[in-house]
Design goal:
- The protein has 14 helices and five strands.
- By secondary structure, the protein is mainly alpha-helical.
- The chain has two domains: 98 residues, no CATH class; 172 residues, Intergrase catalytic core (hpI Integrase, Chain A, Orthogonal Bundle).
- Strands 1-2-3 form a three-stranded antiparallel β-sheet. A two-stranded antiparallel sheet has the order 4-5.
Length: 312
């Protein structure tokens, strides 16, 4: 059991964990709940609801032990950073709620996550592969064919995240400017752009969807619908899990394992190749240019060819 002293559960309005999670986007809440639950388990609170953990009583030594345990279990440095930043977020709320003083907060912030980096994972999807994906979607006579082509085209053509794509509203799309207004990480409103061919796929899907509506019914406010067995287009918004399924299924049809984030990786890689890192950073809406550089998925053959050109 943890060596933290017993403390009565705090009401939600005074609970630093509840307040921290409330500040996050719904898609981030699920991830950070899992992270903090695992952190609580490692701190000796295996059978305790994480809302009842006395987070404000944590000391720097607890976080140091957490980092060491993660390293011992082989967790990557980026994952260690995620855990430490989640705990810091809760401690920031504890300070804001006057549960700890500034000196305590600064000491907690002084604990560093595991250092180091790992080689990037994921896949750089070449143009020929995207054309293959468009072909298998075009060969699908079901409504899924048009919808999946539009989903892939928007993800690959704009570099947006899957969470941004499922939340897209029809009113946020400017078909003349070929722009899409999304709410990104940190609840920031962002403008994404997509090429004409991607908007062609989107328009084809939306036109088909409108044709299926009973006379007198208005179009859906969102872009992408769930489609049930029997090719029934529901009036429900697509989910992030469905985006994952689309990438996996269409990738399987062309013989490649594809994850949804591969479309964003490939978009950023292509912009770096054809323009420069600075333009890629702006289009990816990254605050730190190093984050953009980490998305560069050009393969070893391309890097080797670049080095081979340097003769003495």
């Amino acid at each position: 059991m943890s060596d933290l002293p017993h403390a009565a559960p705090l009401p939600d309005v005074q609970n630093p964990l509840v307040q921290y999670l409330a500040r996050l986007m719904p898609s981030s809440q699920l991830t950070l709940k899992y992270v903090l639950q695992d952190a609580a388990d490692r701190l000796g609170f295996e059978d305790v609801d994480i809302r009842e953990v006395p987070w404000h009583l944590l000391q720097p030594g607890h976080v140091t032990s957490l980092v060491a345990a993660l390293r011992e279990d082989g967790y990557a440095p980026n994952t260690s950073s995620l855990y430490v930043n989640a705990v810091r977020g809760v401690m920031n709320e504890a300070w804001r709620l006057s549960l700890i003083d500034q000196d305590h907060l600064l000491k907690m912030r002084s604990v560093k996550p595991a250092q180091g980096t790992r080689l990037g994972t994921g896949r750089n999807l070449k143009r020929s592969l995207i054309r293959d994906l468009m072909d298998v979607c075009a060969a699908d006579p079901r409504p899924q064919g048009l919808r999946d082509a539009a989903v892939i085209a928007i993800l690959y053509g704009s570099g947006m995240r899957k969470s941004e794509s499922v939340n897209l509203e029809l009113a946020q799309v400017d078909f003349t400017e070929r722009s899409l207004q999304v709410v990104g990480k940190g609840n920031k409103q962002l403008i994404k752009y997509a090429p004409p061919w991607a908007f062609d796929k989107l328009n084809a899907w939306l036109a088909f969807r409108r044709e299926q509506l009973p006379e007198g019914q208005v179009d859906d406010a969102f872009l992408f619908n769930r489609i049930r067995r029997g090719s029934h287009i529901t009036r429900e918004r697509i989910t992030k899990h469905a985006i994952y399924y689309i990438a996996r299924q269409r990738g399987h049809q062309v013989g490649v394992k594809i994850m949804p984030h591969d479309f964003r990786r490939s978009f950023i890689t292509r912009v770096i190749e054809e323009h420069d890192l600075s333009i890629a950073q702006k289009l990816a809406h990254h605050t730190n240019i190093q984050t953009t550089a980490n998305y560069d998925m050009r393969d070893d053959n391309e890097r080797r060819r670049a080095v081979d050109r340097y003769d003495y």
